[in-house]
UniProtKB/TrEMBL annotation:
Keywords: Glutamine amidotransferase, Hydrolase, Lyase, Pyridoxal phosphate. PROSITE patterns: GATASE_TYPE_1, PDXT_SNO_1, PDXT_SNO_2. Gene3D superfamilies: 3.40.50.880. NCBIfam families: PLP_synth_Pdx2. Pathway: Cofactor biosynthesis; pyridoxal 5'-phosphate biosynthesis. GO terms for biological process: L-glutamine catabolic process; pyridoxal phosphate biosynthetic process; pyridoxine metabolic process. It comes from Oceanotoga teriensis. The keyword Transmembrane helix does not apply. This is Pyridoxal 5'-phosphate synthase subunit PdxT.
């Protein structure tokens, strides 16, 4: 059975765990220690406060462990703060994990009161509109040549992928839709296994 881990350092961990529990034939694990990465097929880095998560990742030895996890071909999905942590550059400074060749800008849609949601059809992912929820969300300013842009909102890039890494600046775990989580399972984790 496919096992998915949610990095349990800070942020919206329960929300991902709860939505994953609605999907059949998968097991969900909270990743509290680097050794937990040995027991999972894919990792989700949730939204939260990227500066705090970054500091704690360094303190608990997660940086090398997650880089090795990726090197071994395992898939990783970062939502919002998770996107920030996976990126190469954040507001012109070095990113934390540097696992996807994107430059990001934090809080690019404004502060908490500028949070919003919208519906968008993304044919590659589902035939019904996806609900996209943005909370103090980052945007992707530039992408490297090996990065594929998945979703743009007007001219802003809000979802992208590079090999085994998926990033979204919005929060599918806060909707009632399991579509994006299923997309990650089917197109990343299962695709890498077969
Ligand atoms: N703005 C937050 C940060 O920079 C991310 C917000 C979120 O994850 N919802 O870490």
């Amino acid at each position: 059975m496919i096992k998915i881990g949610v990095l349990d350092i800070q942020g919206g961990v329960e929300e991902h765990v709860n939505i994953l529990k609605k999907i059949e034939n998968i097991e969900v694990l909270k990743v509290k220690y680097p050794k937990d990465l040995n027991n999972i097929d894919g990792l989700i880095i949730p939204g939260g406060e990227s500066t705090t998560i970054s500091k704690l990742m360094k303190k608990y030895g997660f940086i090398e462990a997650i880089k090795n996890f990726s090197k071994n071909g395992k898939s990783i999905w970062g939502t919002c703060a998770g996107l920030i942590l996976l990126s190469n550059k954040v507001d012109d400074e070095d990113g934390t994990l540097k696992l996807i060749d994107i430059d990001v800008s934090r809080n690019a849609f404004g502060s908490q009161i500028n949070s919003f949601s919208c519906n968008k059809i993304v044919e590659k992912i589902s035939s019904i509109p996806l609900e996209l929820i943005f909370i103090r969300a980052p945007i992707i300013k530039n992408v490297g040549e090996n990065v594929k842009v998945l979703i743009r909102l007007e001219d802003k890039i809000v979802a992208a992928k590079q090999n085994n890494i998926l990033v979204t600046s919005f929060h599918p775990e806060l909707t009632n839709q399991t579509l994006f989580h299923e997309y990650f399972i089917n197109n990343f984790i299962k695709a890498k296994r077969s």
